[in-house]
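Work Package 3 (structural annotation) set out to generate three-dimensional models for the target panel prioritized at the project kickoff. During this period the team completed the workflow that converts sequence records into discrete structure tokens, so that structures can be stored uniformly alongside our sequence database. As a representative example, we reproduce one entry of 485 residues exactly as it appears in the project archive.
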Amino acid sequence: MSARNTVKSIQDIMRQDVGVDGDAQRLSQLCWMFFLKIIDDQDQQLEVMQDNYRSPIPERLQWRTWAANPEGITGNPLIEFINGDLFPSLKELPAIGRSANRARVVRGVFEDAYNYMKSGQLMRQVVNKINMVDFNNLAERKHFGDIYEQLLNDLQSAGNAGEYYTPRAVTAFMVDRIDPKPGETLFDPSCGTGGFLTCAIRHMRDRYVKKIEDEQALQGALQAVEKKPLPHMLCVTNMLLHGIEDPSFVRHDNTLARSYVSYAQSDRVDIILTNPPFGGREEDGIESNFPAHFRTKETADLFLALFIRLLKPGGRAAIVLPDGSLFGEGVKTRLKEQLLQECNLHTIVRLPNSVFKPYASIGTNLLFFEKGEPTREVWFYEHRVPEGQKAYSMTRPIRFEHLKGCIDWWGGAGRQDRQATEQAWKVGIVEIKARNYNLDFKNPHTVADDHGDPQELLARLEAAEAQTAALRDQLKNILAEALLR
């Protein structure tokens, strides 16, 4: 059975269980089970490859002990074992010895994990299906990794869980333009399910990893933080599927909870790639970690302040920000002033509202900047929905090839010989300052739609409102007469 069919059959089994409700719970359930199978497969490989290697998971809790035998424990005893022994023990797994990091990864995943399934018989069926996947088989693991990414894509329709997902075309484009290399410190401070990390890993492996030392440099320079438990668990599993031996660099924490001034030179990074949460508000007290002129409860603003501080001189960043960050005032103005003074904000790619549908329908922008020199001019590029398509949607999402026009215009690594086009224009720093750092520049090559004379439109609106009021009164009279009969 193919990996795709295996996952589909597992989901079908879970739909029969009364304890699992909705796509988000199904994926969470799948994740901790896949995680234990992947860890166990890796442990068995490490036991062969490394002298004196011992799994940090006690023998009775290892997948091979309680899950691998298709005729093994099932029914109520299986549920009792999972709820009464497996979960409590892994939540308190001691991190000691040579496998301390690996133990911390396991404990971190299970800290907020939950077993939703109620039927031990159905649980056994799921376990047996998972046993059909060999995660030590490189080709099979890669194929399964692609399917896992599709599962994360499906989260877009799973209520609030969609907030964890950035379209892969967007992450791949941003990574392609930043061009990370093994050994460069790459940080995603709000990593979600790990989309930017996986794209960066693929990019470096395809272009720069030629020997074992290159892979070691790649893996040793990754840093990530995720605040919420579900995406943290999904991200750690995603890293394992992408061949990361020690995903302990993915911390379950709130990046903003640390004091702004406590980030020292040793915390500086070469690259920031992220889609920080926007539209949300931080809990009381978080803003006090920041200087008074940057204090706000708006999450995206706090992250932007932190990005400016965290980049090394010469460091580069690609981030997603909403339109409101471009034209907003107050703290937003002070942040933009700081950004343009300390960094070269060389490019803003303006995306249509439909890119992040269905869970967000606001205009978004991709900001590319480098630390160390002030901004002298900003190039804008307006990405448009392909011809013949009104908007992006779940059935017709943005694809990497849709962004090829921007790549062709970019001008290579040095951004040389950029030209103004129908979709591209530049604005100098003098004009930006004159607008009080409002970066919401519209495409000057686009002719505004002629909606007619304002006075005439207002008269039409008033007439329509009067007609509506008359119809409403008429309907009220009809209902009143009907009640009197």
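The domain at 152-434 is CATH 3.40.50.150 (Rossmann fold).
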